[in-house]
Amino acid sequence: MESLPDLWRRVWDPAAGFRARAARRPGLGTAVRDLLLVRTVPALLALILGYLSFTVGYGRISRAEGPLWDLVWARLPEQVNPADIRAVLASLPSLPAWWRVLPWCVLAAPVGVLSIWLHDAVWDHLALWLLRGLGRPRSFRTTLVADAEALKVGVFGAMAGLLKNLGLVFSVLLWPVGIWFWVLRGFALAAWHGCPVWKGVVATLLHALLMGILVGGLLLTVVVMVMQELRIG
C-alpha cells in the first residue's frame, strides 16, 4: 500500500510517477485492493453529504420555502390557490434520518468505486484503441490496472470534490481540479500501454466526447418520442 505523499507526488509529476509505478508491475488484485482502501472512505463521505444536501432541498420543497418559491408565488395565476399547493407539499413523506441510510451508504460506497473504475476502463480502452495507442498485447487487463492506479491518485480530487456541497461557488472553482484528475488517467494509460502521453490524454478526452454523444443521443431520442406521443394524443 502506497502512502498518500507518494500519491501526491504523482499528482504533480504524473508522467514520471506513473512510469515508475508501471515499472514495478503491480498486479490487478493489488491495484484493486489499494483502490478500494484509498477511495471507499471519500466515496462514503460523498454519499452522506449528498444525502444531507438532498434532505435540505427536499425539506425546502415540502415547506415551500426559499427564493425559488418566492418567484413561484409571485407569478402564480390568480385562479390557483397557494394554500392548495402548500397542502399537497405538506403531505409529502418525510425522509429517513441520515443514520438510517448509513448502512446502505456503507454498502454502496465500494460498489460505486468499482463501478466508476470499470466504466472508465471500458471507455478508456475503447478510446485508446481508436487512437491506436494500445500496447502489445492489447490487454484490457492492462487498462484495468492503469485506471485503478490513476483513480487511486484521484483520491485528492475526490476529497476536493466534497467541497461542492458547500455551494455553487465551490463547484465552479473545482472545475479545473476535476478536469486535471480526469486527464490524469491518460498519463497512467500511456505508462502501462507504452504509448505517447498525448495519446493517453486524448483518449480520456475522447472518452468524454463519446459519452456525451451517447447520452445526448439518448436524451434526444426520448424527447422526440415524447413529442411524437403528445402529437398523436
Report on this structure:
The chain starts with a helix and ends with a helix. The protein is mostly helical and 233 residues long. The mean pLDDT is 90. The longest helix has 36 residues, at 28-63. It has helices at residues 4-12, 14-23, 28-63, 67-74, 82-90, 98-130, 140-153, 155-161, 168-173, 175-193, 197-232. It has one domain (4-232). 80% of the residues lie in helices and 0% in strands. The protein is elongated and about 70 Å long. It contains 11 helices and no strands.
Protein topology:
Elements: H1 4-12, H2 14-23, H3 28-63, H4 67-74, H5 82-90, H6 98-130, H7 140-153, H8 155-161, H9 168-173, H10 175-193, H11 197-232
Kindly summarize this structure in a few lines.
The chain has 233 residues and is mainly α. The chain has 11 helices and no strands.
Shape: elongated
Label the structural class: mainly alpha
Oligomeric state of shown chains: single chain
Number of strands: 0
Q: Give the termini separation.
A: 61 Å
Beta-strand share of residues = under 5%
Radius of gyration based on Cα positions: 23 Å
Order of helices and strands: HHHHHHHHHHH
Question: Sheet with the most strands?
Answer: none
Which percent bin holds the helix content?
over 70%
Residue-averaged pLDDT: 90
Number of continuous helical runs = 11
How many distinct folded domains?
A: 1
Uncertain runs = none
